[in-house]
Each structure stands twice: as structure tokens, then as C-alpha cells.
Amino acid sequence: RSVLPAVVSLGMTMMVVVLVVGYLWKLAGPDVFTIGREELIAAQFGQTEQSLALVREMAQDLAIGRTLATTVLLMAPALLLLRRWRPPFGSITLVWGIVGAAIGALSVFWYFPVLVLTGLLADWLAGTPGIFASRVTRIRTFSVVVPFVLWGLYFFVTHWNFGLAWPPALWLGTMMLASTAGLGLSLLVVPNGPSDGPLSTADRDGRGAHRPAG
Q: What is the CA radius of gyration of the chain?
């Protein structure tokens, strides 16, 4: 019970931040990499090979940049939550669900299930310490796997609904960049330290799930 106010407050704060910097939030609708979008933009400037190549380069830079920004916006609160508490299952899903519902109400709800499904995976990884050798291993695995799955689901939903113009090397590379960003963020938020030794018996069987992490 003690962690619930913190979880809700974190979700509301994150929602306000995302609404303020909404132009960086990628999970709001189809992006510039969907089929036909680049050609449509280029046509406004006269559809030549040069204009299309320029638009394609700018679109790729924008999409990758927004992917990394959204990864940081999602992962930073989750890592802070894991650093301060051992939250109960559903905490990360609740935080991300608050943000997804707010953004979906302003745009489309296509990507709300993406946040919920990834949040459930994140909660599972965060709440099953027994499968990891140490706390730092759990955090690093969490930080790499969660962004990769998030953007994999995102690209799948985008392709299913709108068509995906990017080749596999580009969207797969973007997913790997997001995982790298998550790993780097975890090194800043939860650096290596004395607490990174083997998990205690209480951590392994989940009895410490609701206490502050110290």
C-alpha cells in the first residue's frame, strides 16, 4: 500500500512531462516511416529524386531521435521506481498506462496496448528477482529487454495498421539503439555499487517486494 501513492504520483508527473514535450513522444500515432508518407511530404516540395532523398534522410533522423527520447521518458521513471522501491506487480504498467491513456485521448489508442503489454513484461522482470544472480543483473537485463520489446511491438502495430516502409535493417537497428539507450540510462540511474552483490533470500522469494530498496 505504501508504494501506491508514489506510483500514481510518478505516473501523473510523467504524464505532465510527456504532454509538455509531446513533440518528442513517438507513441502518439503513425510516424513518417509509414508507407507513402515520405513521398507525400516530398511532393509538397516538388517530387524529385533529390527532394525525396532529403525527406527520407530527415524522416529517419526524426523517427530515430523520437524513439530514443521516448525510451528515456519511459525508462527513467521505471528505473527510479526500481531503485527506490521493490514495487508490487502492476506498478510499471499503471505508470505507463496513465501516460498512454492521456496521450491516446489526444491522438489515437493504437499504441495503448503496446504500453500495457510492455508494462506487464517490465513488471514481471522487476518482480522475479529469483531468476537473476544479482540486483544489478536484473536491472541491466530489464533496461535492455524492455525497450527492445516495446519498439518491436510498436513496429508490429504500425505495420499491421499502416504499413511499414522501413527495411528490416533500419527498424531492427532502431530497436537495438533503444536497448542501448536503456542500458546507458540504467548505468546512470542505478550505477554499480556495494548493493550489487547476490540477492538476499528475502529478495529471491519476493518477501521484500513492498519495502524501500534503500
A: 19
